[in-house]
Amino acid sequence: MAFGFTSTDFVYLNNSFNPETGRWENSGEFLAGDDPKLMIHYASYGINYGNSIFEGAKAYLGRDGKARLFRIEENAKRFARSAKGIRMPPVPVDMFIEAVTELVKRNRRFIPEFNEDPNQRGALYIRPLLIGEPGLGVNISKKPTFLIFVSPVGPYYATGFKPLKAMTVHHMTRAMPGGHGAHKTGANYVMSMLATAYAKENGCTEALWLDGYRHEFIEELSACNFMCRIEDTLVTPALSDTILAGITRNSILRIAKDLLKMTVVERPVLLEEVLDKADETFGCGTAAVVTPIGTIVAYNGRYTKKVTDDVGELSRELYGRLTGFQWGESEDVFNWVTVLD
Ligand code: PLP
Ligand code: COI
Question: Which of 128, 153, 178 is the C-terminal boundary of a domain?
Answer without folding.
Answer: 153
